[in-house]
Amino acid sequence: MGGNNIFHAQLSIKNKPIVLVSYSIAFVLAALLVIWLNLSWRPDVPTPSTDSGFYAYYGKAILQGQIPYRDLWDNKPPLGYYLNALALLIFGKSLWGIWWSGIVWILGCTVLIFIVLRKLMGNTTAWIASALFLVALMNPELFEGGNMMEVYSLAPQIGIIGVTSLFFTRHRKSWFAALAGILTACAFLIKQPSIVLGCSAVLLMILSPLSELKIRQAFKIGLGFVFGFAGLVAVVSVYWLWAGALGQFIDGALLQGFSYIGGQESHLREYFFYNLVNVLPNLYIGKLYFIALLSGGAFLLEKFYQFWIKPVLRERLSVIEWCLLIVLFLFPMVAKNVSPNSYVGKFWIITIFSFGLYILIKYYRSKSRPIFHQVFSPVEWIWLIAMISLPLEVLMASLGGRYFGHYFITMLPAVTVAVAYPIWKVTLVSRESLKTKGGLVRNSIYVVLMITILVWGVASFVYDTPPAVYTKNIAGIVKGQIWLNDLEQYIIQTTNPDDEVLVWHIHLGINFITDRRAPSRFLFPLNLFIPASEQNTKLEQYVDELEENPPELIVIQKVSSLALPFVDEPVDQLCNTYCTPEFEQALNVPQIRQEWLRFQQFFVTHYDLDVKIYDWIVFRKQQ
């Protein structure tokens, strides 16, 4: 026995250089692949840049000594902006700096998810799943040029998966929950909706000991998570307390960060179902999302039948129970006849929920009920966390009532884990498991799912491949040249470096590229009108800042893609066609309307039409 152990140890030592070389080659190939897929967004070729340019300007302003929320106001948390500042500091204060830092971040996230999945599911599954993660992220419908807060939030989310796997494999220590809380806080401080995976993780962390009636352990786990989350947020808040801007930080990052939800009225249910039915299925990631749901359905049916429903059905039902089940089955049909104009789906939901409650009661009254941690392996616990996160991720992506592809980037870690599970199951298939009819059917389902996933991966990679215009001069990525459009060239040629330029849009990339400062700390004009209430004084402060220091140029998009009008038109004609709901509601508030008229008077008094470039109109300050 000892001789065999020595032999295997020696063999392992001899193989280490080979393994190291193999991983090094794989890392280099992965880096080249990330660079290749990013060629579609290289700065020396015309590429769309909206949010990315906004964040880059914000990061550059931080490097110039400005403090978020005090000197620069936005309703997003601060960590993503500081990551932008760090990227510009390391890689250079240009679009190329953002581009190269994005490559490093994406490569790092891909390697991180490989490490986590390799520890959890083995080499084969990790290789395939991490490749799927990369091609899903680089899909143009989602990536949209990169440098998005959702991309930065991937790293802490992947970290949550890793920490949670350690929790379920190392005696469920509460300090793992605290670490998960810290990582969830990191995700929250990058983009608020990114907390879904962390919340799902702590939910199942608590449920695991509760299934064994270990209430004290469950309480310690929950407390550890809250301590980790709140502790990091509190530590970060100390910086703004020191800067004398704690109130602005709480208002912008924590309170109004959740106000960006499409107006005063709540239409979250409509937004959610519209996203689920109309938006997500038309995206490439949507197909992988629904494959993940299919694998989830197969797994849960198997587990519930094997460990809960089957034991319950073995027990003899009483007459009352039979009558109850019959009533539950007939309830939707009877209710529909009684109330024909009502939505029949809600009656079936009541029936399904009631049946589930019945099974749960029978389960807890059963003398031989299984313990959760014996039913689910650590891999399956992590997989369940991912499955719980999937619908919640769509819900979070629906909060704003807007349907941008990059909103769905936050679901990628959960989707990757969800589709990795059937791949992992196939790698575990043995001849013995195929001898039984049930094993053959179950494994056949997972094989079909795996083939479908691989087909999706190949198709997505083909879709991600950069067009020829971006690949014909690959050497250009090391030359550092920047493509400037006509508007940006005009601004550089007709203004001085210390002149300020107001861009009435989210296109702060114009300010970043031309190196012209914005005149107000309120960078995104739509934020001026949120919330639509008398307490909102942001427009008043905005006009005060412009009157004190009028910008040299004002640049507007005549037909605003934001549906946000400008003061160059009479106030009664602003929304004749269409206005964004936030603006229209705000303009009905007397105080905000009065400040809008003051803004209009300031504009008419100080500015003349200068030039039209494409769909942009430039106004210049009167001399």
- The total of helices stands at 26
| Mean of pLDDT | 86
State the major sheet. 4 strands, mixed
Uncertain segments are 261-265
Taking strands numbered 1, 2, ... along the chain, how are they ordered across the largest sheet?
Answer: 1-2-4-3
- Principal-axis shape equals globular
**Beta-strand residue fraction:** under 5%
* Helix-strand category: mainly alpha
Number of separate strands = 4
What distance lies between the first and last C-alpha atoms, to the nearest angstrom?
93 Å
Helix content: 55-70%
User: Measured on Cα atoms, how large is the radius of gyration?
Assistant: 28 Å
Q: What order do the helices and strands follow? A: HHHHHHHHHHHHHHHHHHHHHHEHHEHHEE
Describe the protein's architecture and organization.
Helix 14 crosses helix 19. Helices cover 65% and strands 4% of the residues. Strand 3 and strand 4 form a beta hairpin. It has a four-stranded mixed beta sheet with strand order 1-2-4-3. It starts with a helix and ends with a strand. The protein folds into two domains: 397 residues, no CATH class; 136 residues, no CATH class. The protein has 623 residues and is mostly helical.
Can you tag this structure with a few keywords?
globular, 65% helix, 623 residues, mainly alpha, 4% strand
